[in-house]
């Protein structure tokens, strides 16, 4: 039974899940909306919203935390975009920076699909 198990594993180990979330987050930051499976979008939502909340303060510690969560050289460009462009839009907003829009099922394997985007 799956009671009280909130983390979706996606058939991956811990490092694989972190890599998946980082790549999805970087794609969302770069393009501002992405189409993915519904489960991945729902798992990405709290990850990216915490980063935007840290980006609102625009302090050095927040920048370093965002870079460490996004990882590597791409994390630096992602952190720059979050702090300079995305977070200032939500200065007065108390949370809920993203929305998940459900789409019809995928043709090939009937997976539930969704679009995740910044509000």
From TrEMBL:
<dbReference type="Pfam" id="PF01196">
    <property type="entry name" value="Ribosomal_L17"/>
</dbReference>
<dbReference type="GO" id="GO:0006412">
    <property type="term" value="P:translation"/>
</dbReference>
<dbReference type="InterPro" id="IPR000456">
    <property type="entry name" value="Ribosomal_bL17"/>
</dbReference>
<protein>
    <recommendedName>
        <fullName>Large ribosomal subunit protein bL17</fullName>
    </recommendedName>
</protein>
<keyword id="KW-0687">Ribonucleoprotein</keyword>
<comment type="subunit">
    <text>Part of the 50S ribosomal subunit. Contacts protein L32.</text>
</comment>
<dbReference type="GO" id="GO:0022625">
    <property type="term" value="C:cytosolic large ribosomal subunit"/>
</dbReference>
<dbReference type="InterPro" id="IPR047859">
    <property type="entry name" value="Ribosomal_bL17_CS"/>
</dbReference>
<dbReference type="GO" id="GO:0003735">
    <property type="term" value="F:structural constituent of ribosome"/>
</dbReference>
<comment type="similarity">
    <text>Belongs to the bacterial ribosomal protein bL17 family.</text>
</comment>
<dbReference type="InterPro" id="IPR036373">
    <property type="entry name" value="Ribosomal_bL17_sf"/>
</dbReference>
<keyword id="KW-0689">Ribosomal protein</keyword>
């Amino acid at each position: 039974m799956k009671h009280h198990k909130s983390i979706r594993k996606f058939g991956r180990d811990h490092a694989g899940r972190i890599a998946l979330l980082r790549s999805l987050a970087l794609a969302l930051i770069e393009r501002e909306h992405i189409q993915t499976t519904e489960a991945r979008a729902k798992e990405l939502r709290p990850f990216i919203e915490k980063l935007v909340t840290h980006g609102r303060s625009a302090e050095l510690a927040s920048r370093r935390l965002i870079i460490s969560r996004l990882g590597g050289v791409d994390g630096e460009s992602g952190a720059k975009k979050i702090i300079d462009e995305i977070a200032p839009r939500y200065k007065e907003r108390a949370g809920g920076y993203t929305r998940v829009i459900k789409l019809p099922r995928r043709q090939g394997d009937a997976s539930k699909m969704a679009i995740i985007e910044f509000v």
